Structures are given as structure tokens and as C-alpha cells.
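hiii so my PI (J.) wants the whole complex modelled not just the main chain, which honestly fair. so below is everything: two entries, each one labled with what it is. i double checked the lines twice but i was tired so who knows lol
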Amino acid sequence: MSESDRPVVLIVEDEPDVAETYRLWLRDDYEVRMAHDGDEGLELLDESVDVVLLDRMMPGLSGDEVLERIRERDLECRVAMVTAVEPDFDILEMGFDAYLSKPIRSQQLHDTVENLLDRSEYDALLQEYYSLVEKRATLEATKSNAELAESDEYDALKGKIGELKDELSGSLGGIEDDEDFIATLRGLGNGDGN
Amino acid sequence: METGTDLSETMYDLSTVLDFDALESVRPGTSLLIAGPAMSGKEAIAFDVLKEGARGGEGAVVVTTNDRAASVVDEFRTDVPELGESQLGVVDCRGDGVDADESGAFVHHVSSPGDLTGIGIGITKALEGLHKGGRDRGRLALVSLSTMLTYTDKKTVFKLCHILSSRLDSAGYVGVFTIDSGAHDDQTLQVIKQAFDGLVEIRENEGAREARVMGLSAEPSDWQDL
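here's the output for the full assembly
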């Protein structure tokens, strides 16, 4: 674990001034790491990193290649690609979770990082929700209705499932826009290798 | 409940296809699972729900793992003569899709029923196309989850259904999904059911088809002949 509980943001950006600007914007809320090219980015990347801000146009390893390596390593981090041009729909098919068009404003950067962290939280909640649903299904498949009616465990489970369901659709707001929707599904697709 | 707002305008009436009280006023964002044995007409019901909506001017999005996009488009054109240019979207997940005569509908081909990103992109494009065409309400059908379960595990399908419901909720759509109840074990069915707001269960009883609705009202409905 990192020394603080703050989310970790890794900035991969070859222009020092730009990287420093991002760092100054983000350092109050997050633990920030900086890499000056793709290779260094991959070195600094470990399980503690929550969000990667990845410049697309870099000398050496390009952002696209770095992204591919990240996905190969099966890390849970979210990647925001930083591009000079407004991406088209097709670009959503690439494996990133968000895109930012340069130049970037402070508020926009904060919003993007926050949104990606929310999405990770959504995934974690969905994961927990699923495991409870699975447990409930097992109970329902193996116990009689009379047994279920008397079971405190079953009762508590139902309550917890209800709470989580509300939390999933409530506080996080669900899957509001297209980009979130596709990125969340992509996360699922990546995870079904078993 | 809220007072002073007229909910009847925004609710969906699915009872013209399936005559149940619980289906008379279905909240936008609701997703329903239609479960029944093979050849019990689940797909036809799901498609009828969309066609009814289309006749009333709503958008229709079909995600299909079995039928060719072209045949879905043909079927809708035949059964809904008034179908407009930007009223139907089809996401064909059979993997061997070739764009044929599908003009006027938004058609997206996906490499396989396991390509969830591709399916998400297809649905997104369809919803966006219909929205731009002025269709602010609509219905989506995914036929069938059973095929998806052969490409991926129940955990992934459960999550897919949850995420999709969430997206339909923000689009104000109603979703209908089909599953072959005879093709999966009880545990799998129990798990998948819980991703939905309501369940339409179909069974065969002495040669007759019967259905009941659960989850949308406090008590399950009685079994009714279809």
C-alpha cells in the first residue's frame, strides 16, 4: 500500500512544463507520480496506481503502445488518454477509459480523475453486489421456503443486497453517458478470461 | 409518491402485448427478463413489445445473437409498415455479418456475443442515432442471454445486465431480455433474474402456454393463458 490513503495518479507526459502543471493541479487531492516517457511510465506502474494520465504523442513508446502494455498486464487502473485532437467515435474502441483534448483546464482534469475513481468504485460495488446475489441464489436453490423464512442470515443478506442496489443506482448515478457505458463494459470484457 | 405530476404520460404500457395489470404502466428504465423453455415464443414476445412501441412512434433497439440484422429489419418493416427511417437500431452479434440491404436502420455488426465492448458501442450508436432522429422514448430487446452465457460466465452476464439496465434507465428506455430457462441450472437462473426489475415467466401446461409476471408488484400475478 502507499503511505497515504489518497488515490494515486500517474502522469505520463514528455513535456516537463505540462506534466508539472498537472501535478500542481492534482497534488492537493491525490498522490501524484510523474513519468517522462512511456518506458518510465510502465516502470512506475504498479497495483497502487488508480488513474493514469497518458499523453498520446510521445517520443519512444507511444501512448497507444503504453496503453496496450497496461491492458496486457491486467492492472485495475483507469487510463485517461490525453490527445491533441478531439477523438471520433471509433476511437472509443481503443482500450482507454476517458480522453482529454489538449489544452486541458484544471477543472476538467479534476472532473475526469474523479469520474474515473467513481467508476472504479462502481466496479468494486458491483463486484460485492454480485457476490451477495450469488450467495442468495445458493440459499434459495438449496433451502425450502420455510427454512428461508426462518433464516436470519437470509434476511440480512436480502437487506444488504437492497442497500447495495440503491447505492449502485443512487450515489454513483449509474452509467450516465455513452463513454462511461462503453468503458464499463470494456472492463467486464477484460475480466472474463476465465 | 410524488403528487402533481402526471406519470401516465411517461409510463410504458406493455399490456397490449401481455395482458397483465402489472404491465399497464411500466416505469421508464425498467428491465424485464422473459424466461421460458425453448420454442415457447419468448423472442416473439420480446419483438412484439418493440413493434408495439414502434407503432406508437417509439424507437426500437434489437441486440440479436441468433437472427441476421437484415432479417430483423425486414421483419420490423413488414410488421410495422409505418416504421420510420431513424426508428430502428440492430446490433447483430453473430460475428459473420455483412452489410446487406439494411438502409434506413442503424445496423452494427459485432464480432461475437462475447465482445461486450463491441455490443456497447453498437447500442450506443443505435441509441444516439434514434435520439438524433427525435425518438426520445424507446424499447430495447436483447435476444438472447442464453447465447451470451455460452460465450462468457454468469458473473459477466449478470454485470452486463446491470450495466445495461443502468444505461437504459438514463435513456428512459424499457428493456426486455430473453433467457431459455431449460438451458441453465437453477443457480444461474436465480443469479441472472436478480439483475432485473421484473420477470415474465412462461411455461407449457398441458399443451397451452401460460405466463405470469413477478417483481413489478408486491405479489406475483396468477398464471394466465397466452
